[in-house]
Amino acid sequence: MRIPAHSVCTAIRDDIVSGVYERGTRLTEELLARRYGVSRVPVREALRTLEAEGFVVTRRHAGACVAEPTEQDAADLLEIRALLEPLAAARAAQRRTEAHLKVLRGLVRLGKERSRHGGTEDLRSLDGWFHETLTQASSSPGLITLLTQLRHKIAWMYGMEPQAAPAQTWSERAAVVDAVARGDAERARALTVLHAERATTAHRPRTGPRAGRVRDSQHAVNTVSARN
């Protein structure tokens, strides 16, 4: 059975984001095909997609390599996200469904609960789930694609410090959800602007070796088809 290129792309992207392939690492079709248990055809297609997304660059005499973004590249991503997330919140206020609201309210409830009892990893997971759901509620395919790519790249370029005041963070999100529930697009936008500005300060550029070393992947070979 032929493995879809988008599944291979997801697997490689996840490994880049998690640091399995460090910045500057050469990515040969042969190595990747062997690693993920696929032919070179979906690998070639995946590398083209990842190059378009900015995770991979093609260098003369070296071929495909993991990109090495500058500090300015990283800073630009946070600025772009701070502009797009308020737009997504405003559109969510106009287009959300009851199912979206149910999930958002549930996440806020869980976030407030975890804030009281600690659990940094739980809060990080809930944070990602909240932003993803709010973006999906915008029902704007182009905006969803852009913000999803931004989240992947920001996770790659930045580490997150533990939230200094997680209870306040989730109270801010609760206010955004209330505005979305009322269909108040301008208030949802304004609250998200303030929230995004505060959240940006928790991001710290990732540092570490830039050598072309490949660490062990958590993804087993021949399981990439399950990553659709």
Report on the structure:
- The protein is mainly α and 228 residues long.
- The protein contains 9 helices and 4 strands.
- The strands form 2 sheets. A two-stranded antiparallel ribbon has the order 1-2. Strands 3-4 form a two-stranded antiparallel sheet.
- A hairpin with a 3-residue loop joins β1 and β2 (63-66).
- It starts with a helix and ends in a 23-residue tail after the last strand.
Describe, in short, the structure shown.
This protein has helices at 5-17, 29-36, 40-53, 71-95, 98-117, 120-136, 141-157, 166-182, 185-200; strands spanning 56-59, 63-66, 158-160, 203-205.
Q: Give the integer mean of the pLDDT values.
A: 86
Q: Helix coverage percent of residues?
A: 55-70%
Q: Which percent band covers the strand fraction?
A: 5-15%
Tell me the major beta sheet.
Answer: 2 strands, antiparallel
SSE order in H/E notation? HHHEEHHHHEHHE
- Class by SSE composition: mainly alpha
Q: What is the radius of gyration computed over CA atoms, rounded to a whole number of angstroms?
A: 19 Å
Number of beta-strand segments: 4
Unreliable stretches: 209-214, 216-228
What sort of overall outline do the alpha carbons produce when their principal axes are compared? elongated
